[in-house]
Amino acid sequence: MSDEVPESRIYVGNAGVDGAGDAGWLLGHFKPPGDPRHSEDVEIKWGVHPPGDRRAAWAVGETRTALLVLISGRFVVEFRGRDVLLAEQGDYVVWGKGVDHSWRAEAASTVLTVRWPSVPGYKLG
After folding, report:
1. Paired sense of beta strands 65-72 and 75-79, if any
2. Could you tell me the end-to-end alpha-carbon distance of the chain, in angstroms, rounded to an integer?
3. Which of 123, 125, 117 is nearest to 63 (CA)?
4. From CA 114, how far away is CA 36, in angstroms rounded?
5. pLDDT tens across 93-112, in order?
6. For domain 7-116, which CATH number applies: 3.10.450.540, 3.40.50.10260, 3.30.1360.120, 2.60.120.10?
7. What secondary structure, in 3-state letters, does the chain show?
8. In sequence order, what are the residues at sequence separation of 6 or more whose Cβ sits closer than 8 angstroms to the Cβ of residue 117?
């Protein structure tokens, strides 16, 4: 009996390269079944944003919880009545279901977003 893991159960990639093909999303329900990156439990996004980049529209009626971590840059997550500035590498914000939000990049920024669960039907970044 072999303890070797089949190649089909391992995926090795680059977040910048792989994310470019799916609006930054690396893992979630939208990846093909059988792909190690397919998940109905969680979604992960590698977001690279030029200065001044903004979310196209507010996310409203959110049914997921989210974590956004600043890798580099200056990034603002906007909530109704409150803005959160992420300015130091590792700064993060978590918000829950029902929290409307948007975002903007004050400087060239890279962020990692984790959302759960992975819900079909959401396409806007």
Report:
1. unpaired
2. 45
3. 117
4. 17
5. 999 999 999 999 999 999 99
6. 2.60.120.10
7. CCCCCCHHHCCCCCHHHHHHCCCCEEEECCCCCCCCCECCCCEEEEEEECCCCECCCCECCCCCEEEEEEEECCEEEEECCEEEEECCCCCEEEECCCCCEEEEECCCEEEEEEEECCCCCCCCC
8. 40, 41, 42, 64
Bridge partners, 70 (sequence order): 111
Q: Count CB neighbours of 80 within 10 A.
A: 10
Q: Which residue from 125, 115, 117, 19 is spatially nearest to 67, judged by alpha carbons?
A: 115
Where exactly are the structural domains of the chain? 7-116
Report how far apart, in Å, the C-alpha atoms of 98 and of each of 60, 62, 108 are. 7, 5, 29
pTM of the model: 0.88
CA atoms in the 13 A half-sphere facing the CB of 120 = 6
